[in-house]
Design brief:
With 104 residues, this protein is mostly helical. The protein folds into 2 domains: 31 residues, no CATH class; 60 residues, no CATH class. 53% of the residues lie in helices and 0% in strands. The relative contact order is 0.11. The model has no long low-confidence stretch (mean pLDDT 84). This is Peptidase M13 C-terminal domain-containing protein.
Length: 104
């Protein structure tokens, strides 16, 4: 995320007369650059399954299920909550004392 933010900032500084995100973010009306970044991240983990398949996945896979691999890190990331204006104590923005600092 920080590499992405740095690239956006440098682009904006070098090209002040051009929009920062002329691509997909402008196509999906109303998304900010940050929201589009997180949407793209979530798409990587997009996965539909039945409850029986999920049980099988958990019992046979070394990794957490895709929904957990997406949502758990994002719940810990203040930039995500800020990008989507998640209220404090909502599922995607737990109180600070219930989170851990992993990457920042």
């Amino acid at each position: 995320y920080w590499a992405y933010r740095t690239a956006l900032q440098e682009y904006a500084e070098k090209h002040p007369d051009q929009p920062v995100s002329p691509g997909m973010a402008s196509i999906i009306e109303g998304l900010t650059d940050e929201q589009f970044f997180f949407l793209a991240y979530g798409q990587e983990w997009c996965y539909a399954s039945t409850s029986s398949h999920l049980r099988s996945y958990v019992n046979t896979n070394d990794h957490a299920p895709p929904y957990a691999r997406c949502n758990v890190p994002l719940r810990q990331f203040p930039a995500f909550a800020e990008a989507f204006n998640c209220p404090v104590q909502s599922p995607m923005r737990p109180p600070r004392e219930q989170t851990c600092d992993i990457w920042w």
